[in-house]
Specification:
Elements: H1 14-26, E1 45-49, E2 52-55, E3 60-63, H2 66-69, H3 78-91, H4 101-113, E4 119-123, H5 126-141, E5 145-149, H6 168-171, H7 188-192, E6 194-197, H8 202-212, E7 216-221, E8 224-225, E9 229-230, H9 233-246, E10 249-253, H10 265-270, E11 276-279, E12 290-294, H11 296-299, H12 332-345, H13 350-371, E13 377-381, E14 384-388, H14 405-418, E15 420-421, E16 428-429, H15 436-454
Parallel strand pairs: 3-15, 5-6, 5-7, 7-10, 10-11
Antiparallel strand pairs: 1-2, 2-3, 4-12, 8-9, 11-12, 13-14, 14-16
């Protein structure tokens, strides 16, 4: 199963097609998450290792999806495998259902790395972490509404599935965007309780926040939209100033970017201390995980001592404590994998080498497109980037409309045939195990793909 040379498009994907036919019979749409689908059918994977994927037909790929960025050390890294096996052997179980020391160790680690974290609670996904963050913010402030930016994704639940990929005719003016549902089945209540803001437009953001200040509990944002469109420093500084002035809690959703810009995430890079931070993806070392961290005063609303004491009996007191629970929260195996992930990131030159290779790949890809006279720029931050087929600046969701999406789709389809894997139209996530050979292979594949689609 050797990786084919860039330029070979003789791959068969019949096994994936057959698997998809089977899957459609028992799984809606043949996929376990809507974002995993692409036409004519997704590619079914069978094996992986390092920076490499093998599909059901035995085709080999350099992987830049990396499970949507979660696998910062690639597939099956030995240090993570060893940590997981050691945890199970030492503990004699995969889960206690009680407090355990690894919960403390990971929380101490996170609080030492992330400026906005004094205390931590665990969840089982980034989605759960952002959802808990909103509940904490509402409980702490007593205000019913939230604010989010147009184009920002925070998970698949009712309050935040608004204005992620909206039609501009429905979304209204760029400086005053309106909430547009991303899915059927969303209650109108949340349309009235979710304020949409324009990313990287401080003047308009300030005007909208001041208009609704008495109602907004929190502003939740991706400091790097989609993991690849960074906020301007002045914009971040202004957002932090405004939220403090108006008594609005600032939540940084670092599910995509945690550990990918720096060990302390976006907040370390920007020098901004949020009130609450949501983490996921990289934190689990390939296992399901989420975490919410924040200032002690705010996180105290989760303290069960203020509510119902299970040993005292009687009824709960929902006016004093915010309920949060989950059977698998703080799972020992997951935390062992997560700590091994952080351990390796803290080794000398590991993150530096990953960042340097990311820059090299971006630079060489831009050179290829320039040589082929095709407008393209890479847009990103840290070890994540995306390819924008345009000469224009990309600062927010509305700017994406100038990108040649049809050309991007055709290039991505050719890249799959050539052995470069990322879900079509998706961002590229680098790992600590992508090699110089991987970079050269990827650059060559892009050149071959461009020659094919441009005739």
């Amino acid at each position: 199963m050797n990786r084919q040379k860039a330029g070979s498009t003789s791959r068969t994907m019949q096994e994936s097609a057959d698997a998809y036919t089977r899957a459609e019979k028992v799984i809606p749409g043949g996929v376990t998450a809507n974002i995993k689908y692409f036409a004519p059918h997704p590619i079914f994977m069978k094996k992986a290792g390092g920076s490499t994927l093998y599909d059901a037909d035995g085709n080999r790929y350099v992987d830049y999806l990396l499970s949507y960025g979660a696998l910062i050390h690639g597939h099956g890294h030995p240090s993570i495998k060893e940590a997981v096996i050691r945890q199970m052997e030492e503990d004699g179980t995969t889960i206690y259902g009680t407090p355990h020391e690894r919960e403390i160790e990971m929380a101490e680690r996170l609080c030492s790395l992330y400026p906005g974290m004094d205390q931590v609670r665990y969840t089982n996904s980034g989605l759960e972490a952002t959802l808990l963050a909103l509940r904490v913010a509402k409980a702490y402030t007593g205000r019913p509404k939230i604010a989010k930016f147009e184009g920002h994704y925070h998970g698949g639940y009712d309050q935040v599935l608004w204005s992620i990929n909206p039609d501009e005719q429905e979304a209204g003016e760029a400086a005053d965007p309106q909430p547009v549902p991303e899915s059927i089945g969303l209650p109108e209540y949340y349309q009235d309780h979710t304020i949409i803001l324009p990313f990287n437009d401080l003047e308009s953001t300030e005007r909208i926040l001041r208009r609704h200040a008495d109602e907004i509990s929190t502003l939740m944002m991706e400091p790097v939209q989609g993991g690849y469109i960074p906020a301007a420093q002045a914009f971040m500084d202004g957002v932090r100033r405004l939220t403090k002035e108006l008594g609005i809690l600032l939540i940084m959703d670092e599910v995509k970017t945690g550990f990918r810009l720096s060990l302390g995430g976006d907040q370390q890079t920007y020098g901004i201390t949020p009130d609450l931070t949501a983490l996921g993806k990289v934190l689990g070392g390939g296992f399901p995980v989420g975490a919410l961290g924040g200032a002690e005063e705010i996180m105290e609303v989760l303290n069960p001592k203020q509510g119902w004491d299970v040993m005292a009996g009687g009824s709960s007191n929902p006016t004093r404590a915010l309920f949060h629970s989950g059977t698998y929260n703080g799972h020992p195996t997951v935390l062992a994998a997560g700590m091994a992930t952080i351990d390796r990131l803290q080794q000398e030159a590991v993150m530096e080498n990953m960042m340097n290779r990311t820059k090299k790949l971006r630079r060489q890809l831009e050179d290829v497109y320039k040589k082929m006279h095709i407008p393209m720029k890479t847009v990103g931050a840290g070890s994540i980037f995306n390819l924008m087929f345009t000469d224009g600046d990309i600062r927010n969701y509305r700017d994406l409309k100038q990108v040649d999406m049809d050309l991007r789709r055709r290039v991505d389809e050719e890249l799959l045939q050539l052995g470069v894997y990322t879900k079509p139209m998706n961002r590229y996530s680098m790992s600590t195990v992508h090699s110089e050979d991987d970079i050269q292979f990827t650059v060559d594949a892009h050149e071959q793909a461009l020659r094919k689609v441009k005739g």
